[in-house]
Specification:
about 140 residues, 7 strands, mainly beta, about 45% strand
Length: about 140
């Protein structure tokens, strides 16, 4: 099946990030290096893609009992961020995405790959800062 046919069917894309590995901060190993969201669309009859990359803000790391969390900020605009939490007892991830001060989606899961696929396959939301490119 062609790429254009896949777009018409509304194929969703999910991404699995690499773990964050900082030698001096092993408590951060349960978090991702970054998080990518992507969406395809059309503009003036041309296929475009929008991508939003979120990077960790290490100073937001919090540890409460068996739960830890960190915020990730969108590199294209400061009105968008993620909160990612990990519950060490339940070995469970929880993620929430915020755009323009509003929660727009949530996901949770116990397995790294499955959690991040579900978290990122929602794509982009209206008002979310992103990089737009025209595909050739």
């Amino acid at each position: 099946m062609s790429f254009k046919n896949n777009l018409k069917r509304g194929v969703l894309f999910g991404f699995v990030p690499h773990p964050l590995k900082i030698k001096e901060r092993s408590e951060l190993n349960v978090f991702p290096f970054n998080v990518l969201f992507m969406q395809y669309g059309t503009r003036d009859g041309r296929i475009i893609t929008g991508t939003a990359i979120y990077e960790p803000d290490l100073k937001t790391f919090k540890q409460n009992d068996n739960k830890c969390s960190i915020e990730y900020h969108n590199i294209y605009g400061d009105n968008c961020w993620l909160l990612i939490q990990y519950d060490e007892t339940k070995e469970n991830y929880f993620g929430e995405k915020f755009v323009n001060e509003k929660s727009v989606m949530m996901a949770d899961g116990t397995e790294w790959n499955i959690f991040f696929i579900h978290f990122t396959m929602g794509g982009l939301f209206k008002g979310e800062a992103c990089k737009i490119e025209i595909l050739k």
